[in-house]
Amino acid sequence: MAPLLDIRNLTVEFDTPEGTVHAVNSLSYSVEAGETLGIVGESGSGKSVHILAMMGLLPMPPGRIVSGEAWFDGQNLMDMSDRELRAVRGGQIGMVFQDPMSSLNPVLTVGRQLREVLVRHTDLTGTKLRARMIELLEIVGIPHPEARLDQYPHEFSGGMRQRVMIAIGMACNPRLLVADEATTALDVTVQAQILDLVRQLKQDFGTTVLWITHDMGVVAELADTIQVMYGGRIMERGPVSPVFRTPHSAYTHGLLKSLPDEGARAQRRLYQINGSPPNMANPPKGDPFAPRNPYATERCLNEVPPLRDVGDVPGHKVAAWYDLPALLAQENEVAK
Ligand SMILES: Nc1ncnc2c1ncn2[C@@H]1O[C@H](COP(=O)(O)OP(=O)(O)OP(=O)(O)O)[C@@H](O)[C@H]1O
Ligand SMILES: [Mg+2]
Question: Which band of pLDDT confidence, cut at 50, 70 and 90, is reported for residue 260?
């Protein structure tokens, strides 16, 4: 079966006073129907920009889609008109962003905002429409949904607002739910509740999920497949357990090493890898992580590695010239 989403060769740039920012570089990946893909990577790795480009939401200018296709359910989103894309967004593809641009409108009641999505994408009217609005708030675990419909976003807590966003994202039973940092601003308890909710929605409706986060812990809990991005490229990708157990990219290894323990997590301390992210207006010539990678070779500094199969686990791929498990094994030998 063809994948539900198939992104091919997507390249996105921004024209800035500092020069051309190479935000997304020949990005290709696919998501199977029913799969949950977790995308991680430090700030600026191109996670949001590639989604915005795909959904027709990239600010152009300064943004520019240099090349690429994004096949969704047999149609190339890149070829669609604004009108066609508007029909897909919120309809077949639900979106939950932390970004205020697409979050709730403060001057409209929550009911009104839910109604707008439903009216645009379904033919529900009257009591059926209202019943669906109430049902959606129930699905996302909002108590007293009838009364809540007439309230404004500021009358909801952060966690409840995020649930409303998910209700809107899920309103039209999308085939694909795209969430970008949807739980980042929430405390750990609320975050855990939202993740439970998404798991439930997947189970009940078979929704395919693309979940973008900074948090490896969230990926471990929610995703089937992890995709690690850096410098607008995929560094590593594969089924969650094998990638966590045996990372092949030094970047993934760094992210996992710096995974905070429960205490640090509660304080929301983020991971730390030595050095800073690349300046994408003047990106490294070779492997973008090479300047920060203690295992980098001459070749890493000069040549971009292709994404290759790791070998033993189907679907586990890495973009690296070096053999990380072998290097780590050597280190262990020396340490003995
Ligand atoms: N409007 C813009 N103008 C210029 N550069 C931009 C713009 N939006 C994004 N970029 C650049 O594109 C690159 C990718 O940014 P993107 O927002 O996709 O990162 P991200 O992985 O989503 O990071 P974060 O984890 O912080 O959300 C960065 O170098 C960023 O500075
Ligand atoms: Mg982002």
Answer: low
Q: Mark residue 139 as left, alpha or beta (left: phi above 0; alpha: psi -120 to 50; beta: remaining).
A: alpha
Q: Is 199 helix (H, G, I), strand (E, B) or coil?
A: helix
Q: Is the dihedral of CA 82, 85, 91, 93 positive or negative?
A: negative
Q: Which atom of ligand 1 is nearest to the CA of 15?
A: 4
pLDDT digits (tens, 9 = 90+) for 263-285: 555 444 455 688 888 999 999 99
- Residue 304 predicted with pLDDT over 60: yes
Rounded Cα distance between 157 and 328, Å, is 46
Q: Check the CA dihedral 257-259-264-269 and report its sign.
A: positive
What domains sit in the chain, N to C, each tagged with a CATH number?
5-335 (3.40.50.300)
Q: What value does the mean pLDDT take over residues 57-77?
A: 95
- pLDDT attached to residue 268: 46
Residue pointed to by tokens 């990106």: 283
CA atoms within 13 A on the CB side of 118: 22
Length of the chain: 336
Whose alpha carbon is nearest atom 4 of ligand 1? Answer: 14
**Tens digits of per-residue pLDDT, 203-224?**
988 999 999 998 898 999 999 9
Q: Is the dihedral of CA 101, 105, 110, 116 positive or negative?
A: negative
Q: Which residues are 30's β-sheet partners?
A: 6
Give the whole-angstrom CA distance, residue 91 versus residue 76: 16
Span 74-91, mean pLDDT? 92
Structure tokens at 50: 């590639």
Residue 212 Cβ inside 6 Å of ligand 1? The answer reads: no
Q: Give the chain's radius of gyration (CA, Å).
A: 21
- The residue whose CA is least distant from atom 5 of ligand 1 is 14
Q: Residue 51 to residues 56, 87, 103, 146, 180: CA-CA distances in angstroms? A: 9, 16, 16, 34, 9
